Hints:
Elements lengths: L1 H6 L17 H4 L2 H16 L4 H13 L4 E3 L14 H18 L2 E3 L7 E3 L4 E3 L5 E3 L2 H15 L3 H10 L6 H8 L6 E2 L2 H18 L6 H19 L2 E2 L1 H17 L1
Parallel strand pairs: 1-4
Antiparallel strand pairs: 2-5, 3-4, 6-7
Helix pairs in contact: 5-10, 5-11, 6-7, 8-9, 9-10
Amino acid sequence: MIGSFLKGFQGNEWSHFMDYLSPVFFEVVPTLAMVRQTTQLGKTYAKLKHPTEETLIRDLIKDLNIPVNFRMNKSSSEMLTSLSKQEKGRIVLTLFFAQLMHLPIAWIDLKKASFEYLSKECNWKPGAWIMTWDDDFLQAMRKIYRGFYLDNEEDYRDGLKTLKLEHAAELFKAQFGSGTDGVQFRMKDFRESFHQIFLSCKAAKTTLHPNFFGFGIYLSSLYEHLEGLDETFHVGDVFREIMAVRKEAKKA
Length: 252
């Protein structure tokens, strides 16, 4: 099943996103868990309709007031490039963080080709690559991200401990950049840092949660999009903003 699933990426627009899967990855992820993961992704993609998942993402976009038309065609009489690179990057980062922190699922297709940028908003038409996260993975990742960007070392370490990744604490920080300084995204940096995490798991004789397969695709599509913008982004500011805005939206 795994082989068939991965072959499906060969020669299509996702093929180069799979480069982060070094051979070591398959040594540190349990085979049966990996089969379950790829089966779930494949079945979801094959479905013609996704009403529940579409409602979840549309409601989130509305709550956070993100200038995105989800799977809709809207035109503009203005130039397609009227959004600045910074504005485009903030939109993509917001979609990444908002789904991870506020939904049980994620539309993981954030690659540049899935977006059409208009005057003050964009059309986002992702393929139906939808991850339903295991709750233990999701809660741990949320702790890790909150811990890093909100300067809570206890949460950061606790999230890593849940995933048995305490040994990779410093390596994970390479994925985030600085909590305050700007970050420039490069695919080669992403691949190298993920590979080092895989090697750390192998050395520590720990397994990697199978959800990291889908999370790696999610993160790599973010990197691809932001690398193309060739800008420096204040990622921590975006994270703190989506946490604050969602909190206010729930109060309303």
